Amino acid sequence: MIEQLRNIAVFNSLSDHSLHEISKHIEYVKHKKGTIIIHADKIEPRFFILEKGIARAYSDGEHQQITFWFGQSGDVLFSFNSYINNSPGYENVELLANCHLIQIKLSDLFLLYDRHLEIANWGRKIAEKELIATEKRLIDRAFKGAAERYREFLDQSPELVKSVALKHIASYLGVTQVTLSRIRAAHK
């Protein structure tokens, strides 16, 4: 099991001892496309690693869903509010393909943090990385035009463009589907 975990980028920095400790608490699960694994307004007691597949995080707006994050193989999926405050989250996380996930109960993860400094630092680094990515998305949305955000999205995640519905990409970029179609046509 340690070798299987070692093949997932998020685990690369951990020693075999820490991987062994984590492996005692994880569960491998499979879910079908369309499954909502994290629900808004509920405390999410689990932390997920997307071993294989694609997911998106979104919030329900007044008239539409607003996608604000995409996850791919190797990414972590969790509700920040549940993880940090043990409070209901504001996001839904939907699987956009049939997915293989690793899950661990937050209570087990926090116990590992208390007992193993290396694992606690690993968890801190994951949270910091996600915070920086969130900050970048916020700043990009405020200061970059939609066409520039689309080009960067293409450069960073070309496989998502092929497998994610355009309505989700448009929402993520903060534009309508019509505007995204125009941007895509001009980009070709």
Architecture overview:
The chain is globular, with a radius of gyration of 17 Å. A hairpin with a 4-residue loop joins strand 4 (54-60) and strand 5 (65-72). The protein is built from nine helices and eight strands. It is α+β, with helices and mostly antiparallel strands. Helix 4 (106-115) packs across helix 5 and helix 6 crosses helix 9 (177-187). It has a domain at 2-115: Jelly Rolls, CATH 2.60.120. The chain has helices spanning 2-6, 16-23, 80-85, 106-115, 117-143, 146-156, 158-163, 166-173, 177-187; strands at 26-31, 36-38, 46-52, 54-60, 65-72, 76-77, 92-95, 99-105. It starts with a helix and ends with a helix.
Give descriptors for this structure.
single chain, 188 residues, alpha+beta, Jelly Rolls, 4-stranded antiparallel beta sheet, 9 helices, 23% strand, globular
CATH architecture classification name of the domain at 2-115:
Sandwich
Oligomer, anyone?
single chain
Instruction: Round the mean pLDDT to the nearest integer and report it.
Output: 94
What ranges have pLDDT less than 50 throughout 5 or more consecutive residues?
Answer: none
Furnish the topology, listing elements before pairings.
Layout: H1 2-6, H2 16-23, E1 26-31, E2 36-38, E3 46-52, E4 54-60, E5 65-72, E6 76-77, H3 80-85, E7 92-95, E8 99-105, H4 106-115, H5 117-143, H6 146-156, H7 158-163, H8 166-173, H9 177-187
Antiparallel strand pairs: 1-8, 2-7, 3-6, 3-8, 4-5, 4-7
